[in-house]
Amino acid sequence: MEREKLIEELKNSIRDIPDFPKKGIIFKDITTLLKDGRKFREAIDCIVERYKDKKIDKVVAIEARGFILGSVVAYQLGAGIVPVRKKGKLPYETNSVEYELEYGKDSLEMHKDAIKPDDKVLVVDDLLATGGTMNAVCDLIERSKGEVAEVAFLIELGFLKGRDRLKGRKIFSLIKF
Ligand code: AMP
Question: Pairing with 112, which of 14, 69, 88, 143 sits 20 to 30 Å away (CA)?
């Protein structure tokens, strides 16, 4: 299928949930895309295609929907997978960072020994909103002296200007609203 048509089809398979988890937020529910085997594969293939020759050492994936996408991308690239999790979930010593969400404040953690200096890292999450989450995760990676090669999203909510927050970084998003 022609790429533009495919992306349109993927876009149309995402479900809007108004007022979730809070009034005023339109939640982009990707489970309607993920449950379709062909669409899931095509979405992942589009991301993998972009990075297959980029010598990525590690994919960092953000809890929880980022795990679903990040781990298959890492597998296809032959890269390691590193989870970034909500506070208190990781068992070993961690670095942590506070971040602001479109709907609240929280902190994220990554194991101290997950990233080696000069590791070439691709960060994967499901959705770019204000960019606060991704910005925080990039900080964590750079604290470990990793190189953030690019950040990749399935969805970008352009009207929230997350790109401005991530200024200076290479950003890829497959589906734009
Ligand atoms: P932000 O830090 O504002 O860019 O928010 C991005 C994070 O919050 C991602 O991990 C998303 O999963 C989640 N998120 C924010 N807004 C939405 C939304 N409208 N629909 C689905 N997920 C969202």
Answer: 69
Residue 24 CB-half CA count within 13 A: 2
Atom of ligand 1 nearest to the CA of 157: 19
Would you list the domain boundaries of the chain? 54-176
Q: Is the CB of 173 under 6 A from ligand 1?
A: no
CATH top-level class of 54-176: alpha beta
pLDDT in tens, 8-34: 999 999 999 999 999 999 999 999 999
126 lines ligand 1 (CB under 6 A): yes
